[in-house]
Specification:
The structure is a single chain. The chain is mainly α. The protein folds into two domains: 11-106, Receptor-associated Protein (Up-down Bundle); 190-350, no CATH class. It is built from 16 helices and no strands. Helix 7 (96-142) runs parallel beside helix 16. The termini are far apart. The relative contact order is 0.08.
């Protein structure tokens, strides 16, 4: 249990901070500044204490003669796996400046998508919050009328005591949602069955698959352009999707490549990939232009990802609207049954 809590809620660098760090590292490495100077400056800069302390760990490791990747690994899970592994690739191949530049662009694009998504659902969420608050006020006001015995909602929630129970229930729901959100974000193993269940919802399957394929194609392009070992590149690319469907393919793809099979054959063996994705892999391998092929495919999926994000925003907004409508409908029905049908039934029994 402690391991699960640690995995879900241990401190991690924020995406905005990570994007800014990658941008600074790319600029400094391209300018030829040595690692000791870079990390001494990072550790001396102002910022969150947990961030500065982790930078201090990397500074000390580099000062002691370790590589930047080794210093970052000493920080545990504070940095995401993709960042850690690509940092090591940059160290090994001398392509750190280019790796960090592309990582910065990747994280900046993710932040932009997040802002667009949050802006799109902000109004429906505000209406949901307003509906929840109104219900709470209604429960509290019921305690002031009818000598505190008028249970218009029929749930036994009246007055201050009812409001407290209602708030505790909402807090419980909030904690569960936060727990699940963190589990999805950090790719906890036991959350995969829930991810598979979500993928069975027709309106969600295509947008989520498109976003995952976009990330997969981009990481494949990046890892291959750095000269990373093929097995390691494929494993990292699949794991970067944080998507149950593709995480399940890691062992199959790795085993097939280890046996001498091609990348295209490995993904065909895994199954579940669209024809254009497999065709691009095949053409790239046969022509010896895999990096260029994956870059073009990545750009195509980036365009599709924007459309997929718009679809998800529409679905999320509709879902919140539906939840608000459901809450209002339940209240109206409960009030009608209690205030109107209740007295009629009592009269009939007499």
């Amino acid at each position: 249990m402690n391991d699960i809590v640690s995995t879900l809620f241990s401190p991690r660098i924020r995406t905005k901070e990570l994007a800014q760090l990658c941008r600074r590292l790319a600029t400094s490495l391209a300018a030829g500044i040595d690692l000791r100077t870079i990390w001494n400056r990072e550790a001396s800069a102002s910022g969150r204490s947990v961030l500065v302390s982790r930078f201090g760990v990397i500074r000390d490791a580099v000062a002691a003669g370790a590589s930047m990747a080794d210093g970052i690994d000493e920080c545990g899970n504070f940095f995401p796996p993709l960042f850690r592994q690509l940092t090591r690739v940059g160290d090994e191949t001398g392509s750190g400046a280019e790796v960090f530049r592309q990582l910065a662009e990747h994280y900046d694009a993710g932040l932009k998508r997040r802002r667009i998504f949050l802006a799109a659902i902000s109004w429906p969420v505000l209406e949901l919050v307003a509906a929840v608050v109104v219900i709470g006020l209604f429960i509290w006001i019921l305690g002031m009328v009818g000598n505190g015995k008028t249970d218009m909602l029929g749930f036994g929630l009246i007055g201050t005591r009812g409001l407290v129970v209602y708030v505790v229930f909402l807090c419980g729901v909030g904690i569960v949602c936060a727990f699940l959100f963190q589990a999805f974000r950090r790719g906890v193993m036991w959350i995969r069955p829930m991810q598979r269940a979500v993928l069975k919802i027709p309106v969600l399957r295509k947008p989520l698959e498109t976003l995952a394929l976009s990330r997969l194609a981009w990481v494949m392009h990046l890892t291959m352009s750095t000269g990373m070992d093929v097995r390691r590149a494929m494993r990292l690319s699949l794991e970067s999707t944080n998507h149950a469907q593709y995480l399940d393919h890691v062992s199959t793809v790795d085993r097939w490549i280890a046996q001498g099979g091609s990348i295209h054959e490995a993904f065909v063996e895994a199954g579940g990939y669209p024809a254009e994705f497999l065709d691009t892999l095949q053409v790239g391998e046969e022509s010896g232009r895999m990096v260029e092929s994956m870059r073009n495919l990545s750009e195509q999926y980036q365009d599709r990802a924007r459309v997929a994000l718009a679809a998800l925003m529409t679905i999320a907004g509709f879902a919140v609207w539906a939840l608000v409508a459901l809450l209002i409908a339940v209240m109206i029905i409960r009030i009608f049954m209690t205030a109107y049908l209740g007295p009629i039934n009592d009269a009939l029994k007499m």
